[in-house]
Amino acid sequence: MNYTSPVWSASALITIDTQNDFTLPGAPAEIKGTSQVLPNMKSLLDAYRAKGLPIIHVIRLYKEDGSNVDLCRKELIENGAKIVAPGSEGAELVQEIRSSEYVALKADELLPGGLQAVGPMEWVMYKPRWGAFYQTVLERFLRERGIDTLVFTGCNFPNCPRTSMYEASERDFRVVMVEDAMSQVYDKGIQEMRNIGVLVCGTGDALRAISL
Description:
The protein is 31% helix and 18% strand.
């Protein structure tokens, strides 16, 4: 038995931090390359929506007083930088990945740990640090729905996607990294993911697998 092979029919698609302030050209915290992977992310999202499979958009929200911000960025926010501030347009998901039912994010629900529905099988979830599982209800949410495979896309591989994939692996989820639907990917990182049993593939391969 191959314990790490994806079970696509029991998978969820995860997008990480694909918000205006991190994605749009010229945005205050733009991560280079994120806008370029949006077409691949959209293709995967469309496929998951068509199949009725779960989608979770994991995001950051930085309170303007810096009270919930990582230590490495805390001073920046305290000094007045407004990045993914609750209630701001910069905190919203980029237009390209929104569902047709998308509504503005509700920070008062997300910050305490709730998930906001933005489609029939689609939710947004706030994470307070790099990893999607750290101080969140994500694992319980997935287990309750019989999900055993997580397919990762989104913004800035070295930080939040990488950490989230390690966290998923240590919780015995099967993990897929779609390398051309994620920004800031590099060769050594791909090898490190493969070393822990992550399937690293392209968007085309993932779409073919989902369609079976």
